[in-house]
Design brief:
Helix content is 41%, strand content 6%. Helix 3 runs parallel beside helix 7, helix 4 crosses helix 11 and helix 7 packs across helix 11. The protein is mostly helical. The longest helix is centred in the middle third of the chain and has 28 residues. Among the domains are: 220 residues, no CATH class; 71 residues, 2-Layer Sandwich (Alpha-Beta Plaits).
C-alpha cells in the first residue's frame, strides 16, 4: 500500500510538471493546473459574478471535496506530494503543531469575503498556483531574474517545510481548509437528505486540518467567528479596491489585451505566470510595482526587444481567474492597449534629418503616417489607429532610448467584450517564425 501511494504521488507530480512546463510544443496546458483549484474557481466566479468555462475546470475537485473532504490533499495535490518528500529530507522531529496557530480557514474566508467585494485577495496562496508559477522560470531560453519571480512562492514553501515539516499543509494552506469545510458541509447535507441525526462532535474530535476552529464553546462560537472573518475579508477587499482606485490618476504600465481595469486586476490576478509562459514573444513580464502598491507580479508588457503580434491571442485564453479575458482575434486586433508617441528630440528623422521610417515600415495598423520636415520623411502617430502593439518601439534604431515609445491608455479603453463562446486555449495555433 505504501509503495502504491508513492508511485501515485510520483505520477501526479510528474504529470503536473509536464503540463505546467509545456513539455509538448503542441499542447499548452498552463491554465489547467491553477484552474483546477476549487478555491480559485469559487473566488473568481464570485468576484466576476458569473461562471466562465475556465472556472468549470475546478468543478470536479469541488465535488470530490464534498464527498471525500481533503482526499485530494493527501493523494493528488502536486504541491503536497512535493512537500511531503521535502519534509523527510532532514529527518527533523515533528514539532508540536498545536503550538502554532491555525491560519488556513481564516485565509480561506478572507479570500471568499474579499471576492464578494469584487476584489479577491491572496489568490497567490493557492498551492496549485504556486506550483504552476514555479515553472515560469523555464518559460524561455533567455532567462532573467525577473522571469523567476512567480516561482518564489513554491521555493518559500520548500524552505518553510525544511524547517517545520507539515506546517503548510496542516496549518496554513487555504485550499486544504476549503476542502475540509466542503467535506463537513457534504457530510451534513448527506445526513439531512438521509434524515439521520447529525452527530455532535466532542471538542477532542475536532479534526486537525488547515483552518479548523477549535472552539471550546462549540460549533456556535466557531460559526460566529467564521462569519466575522468573512465580513472582515469583504470589508478589507472593499477598502483596498476603493483606495487603489484613487491612486490611478495617470496611465500605468501597459497590460496584455483583455486585461480587466485596475485596481480589480490587483486582486483578481493570481500571479500564476500562465500568461507569461504562453506568450511566444516573451514580452509579458512581472510588474515590480510600477502600476501601484498592489500591482506586484501582475503581468505587464515589455516592448524593448519584441512586440505583441497582431495574429496572436494566446494570453487571452491562459488566465484561470478571468483577469485577462478571452478575446476573439477580431476583438483583440480592434483593441487599443496603448498609444505610441514620437520623441522628436531623439528621432533620427525629426532631429537629424536622416532617412529613417522604420516605425512606419513595421506598423501593421498603418498608424504611423509620413510628414515631410526639412526635406525628409518624418513619422507621426495617428492615435485613432494605433493599437499599442509595440512594433514601432521594438524596431526603432535610436539608442540608448527609443525615439518612439508606447504609453498605456486610460483604463476605460482597455477592456473589450470577451469571447465567451471560446474554450480555454489548450492547443496552440500560433508559432513564432
Amino acid at each position: 500500500m505504501h509503495h502504491q501511494r508513492t508511485i501515485l504521488r510520483i505520477g501526479i507530480l510528474a504529470l503536473a510538471a509536464i503540463v505546467s512546463a509545456q513539455v509538448f510544443p503542441l499542447f499548452s496546458g498552463v491554465v489547467i493546473l491553477p484552474a483546477a483549484s476549487p478555491l480559485l474557481a469559487i473566488c473568481a466566479a464570485i468576484a466576476a459574478r458569473s461562471v466562465s468555462l475556465v472556472s468549470l475546470i475546478g468543478l470536479p475537485l469541488l465535488v470530490l471535496a464534498l464527498v471525500r473532504g481533503r482526499w485530494f490533499c493527501h493523494h493528488l495535490c502536486p504541491t503536497g506530494c512535493l512537500l511531503i518528500w521535502v519534509g523527510k529530507l532532514l529527518r527533523r522531529h515533528h514539532f508540536r503543531m498545536q503550538r502554532f496557530p491555525v491560519f488556513g480557514l481564516g485565509l480561506c474566508l478572507v479570500m471568499l469575503g474579499s471576492a464578494l467585494a469584487g476584489f479577491p485577495l491572496l489568490l497567490n496562496l493557492d498551492p496549485l498556483v504556486q506550483f504552476n508559477g514555479f515553472f515560469s522560470i523555464w518559460r524561455s531560453t533567455d532567462w532573467t531574474w525577473m522571469a523567476g519571480l512567480p516561482g518564489l512562492g513554491l521555493i518559500m514553501l520548500i524552505l518553510i517545510t525544511l524547517i517545520w515539516p507539515h506546517l503548510w499543509c496542516e496549518r496554513i494552506c487555504p485550499l486544504g481548509a476549503l476542502q475540509a469545510l466542503l467535506g463537513i458541509s457534504g457530510r451534513f447535507g448527506r445526513n439531512v437528505i438521509g434524515r439521520k441525526p447529525v452527530p455532535q462532535p466532542a471538542v477532542s474530535d475536532t479534526p486537525v486540518c488547515p483552518g479548523s476552529f477549535s472552539a471550546p464553546a462549540g460549533r456556535g462560537v466557531a460559526g460566529r467567528r467564521m462569519f466575522l472573518v468573512l465580513v472582515f475579508g469583504a470589508g478589507l477587499g472593499w477598502v483596498l479596491r476603493r483606495v487603489g482606485a484613487t491612486d490611478l490618476g495617470s496611465a500605468g504600465p501597459i497590460r496584455p489585451p483583455g486585461t480587466v481595469a485596475e485596481p480589480v486586476l490587483w486582486g483578481l490576478c493570481s500571479r500564476c505566470g500562465s500568461c507569461m509562459r504562453t506568450c511566444p514573444e516573451n514580452i509579458i513580464i512581472p510588474d515590480l510595482g510600477t502600476g501601484g502598491p498592489g500591482s506586484w507580479l501582475t503581468p505587464r508588457l515589455d516592448f524593448s526587444q519584441r512586440y505583441c503580434n497582431e495574429w496572436c491571442r494566446l494570453c487571452t485564453g491562459a488566465c484561470p481567474t478571468g483577469a485577462i479575458g478571452r478575446l476573439s482575434l477580431e476583438a483583440k486586433r480592434a483593441l487599443s492597449i496603448g498609444t505610441a508617441r514620437v520623441d522628436r528630440t531623439r528621432c533620427l528623422a525629426w532631429n537629424e534629418a536622416q532617412y529613417c521610417m522604420v516605425c512606419h515600415e513595421f506598423c501593421s495598423y498603418q498608424a504611423v503616417r509620413i510628414v515631410e520636415h526639412n526635406g525628409v520623411n518624418c513619422p507621426e502617430v495617428d492615435e485613432a489607429l494605433c493599437r499599442g502593439c509595440g512594433a514601432c518601439q521594438s524596431h526603432c534604431p535610436a539608442e540608448p532610448v527609443r525615439a518612439i515609445m508606447v504609453h498605456a491608455r486610460e483604463q476605460a479603453s482597455l477592456v473589450a467584450k470577451p469571447d465567451k463562446s471560446r474554450l480555454p486555449t489548450i492547443f496552440v495555433p500560433f508559432k513564432r517564425d
